[in-house]
TrEMBL record:
Cofactors: Mg(2+)
Annotated binding of GTP, by residue: 15-17, 28, 78, 112
Quaternary state and interactors: Monomer.
Enzyme class: transferase
Stated name of the protein: Molybdenum cofactor guanylyltransferase
Annotated GO CC locations: cytoplasm
Keyword presence, Transferase: yes
Domain MobA-like NTP transferase: 12-177
Length: 206
């Protein structure tokens, strides 16, 4: 049986629709890091992924849509019915986009993690075998406690119905919903923690 792991078309969507509260309410994806907007650094990291070619690429954003659109990519704002639902609203639009593009799965990733491992997409795809609907990187903790990285999940498009149902039931936590999918864990050692670090505060951009 073929699977996303070996034949499926993949989409990637950068989630840049947050409120940036710890950045003083600024649009985090457009803040400069090493001389370029964070969203551009993340896009470059996506395009540099090992052994993966994405069939579709888009940005999830809720502010400065015209600025994001200058990247020449589709810009996906949250649906009006889901404004205020947090990052799950962005995941929903990412799944809808991937489905419309004829892709079997979509890799969602945050706009504030520009150092993600270059083998991440390849390893997530390899983990998404027959019967699996989600693959998520997991950092092995120093004390043995695993730290899931739900903002970097690879999801099959057939999870859209489950996400709609979860939103209707009031779910707002990404990991809360992902656990319902029994995701495949893709382990990384503790030394990989800096690669998954989010740039949440102004001092992180220096």
């Amino acid at each position: 049986m073929s699977s996303v792991a070996d034949t499926g078309r993949l989409a990637a969507v950068v989630l840049a629709g947050g409120e940036g509260r710890r950045m003083g309410g600024q649009d985090k994806g457009l803040l400069l890091w090493q001389g370029q907007p964070l969203v551009d650094a993340v896009l470059a990291r996506i395009r540099a992924q090992e052994a993966i070619r994405f069939s579709a690429l888009a940005l999830s954003a809720n502010r400065h849509l015209d600025v994001y659109a200058t990247r020449g990519l589709p810009v996906l704002p949250d649906a009006p019915a889901h404004v205020g639902c947090g990052p799950l609203a962005g995941l929903r639009e990412a799944l809808r986009f991937a489905q419309a593009q004829g892709c079997e799965a979509v890799w969602v990733l945050p706009c504030d993690a520009p150092r993600m491992p270059l083998d991440l997409a390849r390893r997530l795809r390899a983990a998404l075998g027959p019967g699996a609907s989600a693959a998520v990187p997991v950092l092995e903790g120093e004390a043995g406690e695993p730290r899931w990285q739900p903002a970097h999940a690879l999801l099959t498009v057939d999870t859209l119905a489950a996400l709609d149902a979860a939103l209707a039931q009031g779910e707002r936590r990404v990991m809360g919903w992902l656990r319902s999918l029994d995701p495949v864990a893709v382990p990384y050692p503790p030394t990989a923690a800096p690669a998954f670090a989010n740039l949440n505060r102004p001092e992180d951009l220096i």
